[in-house]
Amino acid sequence: MVKTKQKSNATFAVLDAGTSKLAAIIAEINKTGELNVIGDAIQESVGLRGGEINDIEAFSTAVGNTVQIAEEKAGITVRDIHLVCNAGHTKTHIVRSNIELSDAKISKRDLRRIISKQNDLKIDEARSVIQQEQFQYILDGQSQVQNPVGMFAQKLSSDVLITTMRTSSVANMKQVLLQNHLSPGHMHHGACMSGFACLSEEEKDLGSIVLDIGGGTSGIALFMEDKIIYTDTLPIGGIQITRDIATVLSISIQEAERLKVFEGAVFMPVTEQTNSKNFRSEIPSKGDNFILSGNLSDLDTIILSNSEQIERHLLNSIIKTRLEEILEKLMVKLVKANMQHAAGNRVILVGGTAKLTGISEFVSTIWKKNARLGMPKHISGLSEREDIDPLSAALGMANFVQFNSRKEPIQLQTKTPPFGRFGKIGNWLIENI
Hints:
The chain has eleven helices and 18 strands. With 433 residues, the protein is an alpha+beta fold. The strands form five sheets. The chain has a five-stranded mixed beta sheet with strand order 3-2-1-6-11, sandwiched between helices. The protein has a five-stranded mixed beta sheet with strand order 14-13-12-17-18, with helices on both faces.
């Protein structure tokens, strides 16, 4: 039984439901408007596969245990919770609405008219709106207008960013929360929320790609002008890399995971020059997760638990092959949406698999963009934690809630737009940004 203390009106909870780990935080907004984490918990996740629920009872139990640990640390019991997840094949669309103006001077009544038109979109039962945000207004073709009230025009258009998930996935996630006597608030995508935690204000404004390589999924989110303009997910992540190692080397999953974390690294792609017999590829002495005391060679040997020896090159080739697949498939999605150049030249890596040594350089080479490891910005209440990376998405959601507290929670956001007319987001971005 959690011994409760008086709960502030500015106190709220966040759950990050990942395939390999669950992370919960309880935060409060202090008198100066800053966030303070008063309780947190990180536990192993069960009942999810590729971000989707495949055992609702096991997942529900794990969620309840994780939230309870955070409650015990905070000394309060929560009833409402905001959710971060990679379920439901999350998509972001830009939807444009238009109205003709009877009076050339735009009034607040005209804004209410166009917002009403946006909210009157047809409902598609297959997908549900989880987030809706005004992007820009257009006056007679003049784009990027933020506040048109008092301006003159004959035609007023409005672009709104709408993020959707599969309705069934939303319903299943809500059911798990309800089983634990938790009322769902905002719901959002993992890569998007990690971006709010790890990107600088300049990176969010000028354009950046957040690449979230987690345990069971790899998500991507594009930021521009402080808004999320695109997101997508692959049901492939670090777990698949671990399984590849276990299969090829005929070892247990546990040993494969240990090898991946402590011995594995990612090298640059092999070229004709580096493919010569005399070439010795070197592991970077400074990795994304540690600094080696000296350089290790790709041709060094590793001793397995069964005393068998393998070349480090074999282990790293297994890791590299799966990572190449992930990067290639995500780039195909970006190209298909015409988004490969929309967010500029910055890539920020988050997620557990993003800690592999050499991955930043590897992504930079494959995608021809500058990549760095994302670190969550400092937040009060977590100064004693040495490693807060697993809390990145939850902290990002806390930041999101802090600045979007007046927006409708997920249970009220059920309208869904038709996608046919507005599917080619990239064409619009090229014309207007």
